[in-house]
Amino acid sequence: MEKQKFLDLIKGQLIVSCQALEDEPLHGSSYMAKMSLAAKMGGAVAIRANGKEDIIAIRNATGLPTIGIVKRDYPDSDIFITPTLKEVSELIEAGTDVITLDATLRERPGGTSFQEMVCFIRENCSSLIMADVSTIEEGIAAVAEGCDLISTTLSGYTPYSPQIDEPDFDLIKKLASRCHVPVIAEGRISTPDEAIEAFKNGAHSVVVGTAITRPQVLTKRFVEKMKRVEIKSS
Ligand SMILES: CC(=O)N[C@H](C=O)[C@@H](O)[C@H](O)[C@H](O)COP(=O)(O)O
Hints:
Layout: H1 3-10, E1 14-18, H2 29-42, E2 46-50, H3 52-62, E3 66-69, H4 85-94, E4 98-102, H5 114-124, E5 128-132, H6 136-144, E6 149-151, H7 169-178, E7 183-186, H8 192-200, E8 205-208, H9 210-213, H10 215-227
Parallel strand pairs: 1-2, 1-8, 2-3, 3-4, 4-5, 5-6, 6-7, 7-8
Helix pairs in contact: 2-3, 3-4
């Protein structure tokens, strides 16, 4: 999808992250296709998804634009969201509208730089590039390398970013005021009010994952809270 059209489509809207890793009960592209269809019925305008198979299944089921990542662990790096050109190539094959890269300043597997990843994408496809960051410095660096959008996804997931239970509204605000690309608020957004708060802090769009698409986590939240209070039954 053409850049401005995509940015207009997601502006002020909800993107749902439909992801289930191998150790999760809903793992599998048929489940993710259904999940994304449910998100579309609820009004989501785009889907963030992990892996070529899921991305293709989601596009076929919904027709919605996809924001693609490939999560993969490498022994020589802490980066796990689209770490190398191999994962980028898989996303190009999937035909995803947006390719999302970890844009933290940490060493990538094999020593590939963020800049090389951006050049490779620009040379080989027309997908937009989203940079997942955890700090304002990473956001500024990613914009300087030419990314199209920035997302707060990794705040709380690098040891040097705030380890908080809530969304990182402060980072959303700083990125929105200092970077000239649209800022996507992502990570631990659990309620509609938090989504609205993200927009008030300058977010262009909001991504919600767990609070919509990970029922085992939502179930656990109920159970854990219920354990902490004495329930008086009649
Ligand atoms: C850190 C990391 O691996 N984040 C992943 C990125 O794609 C997903 O597991 C999250 O579900 C997604 O970012 C949405 O966030 P939340 O599920 O908190 O709404």
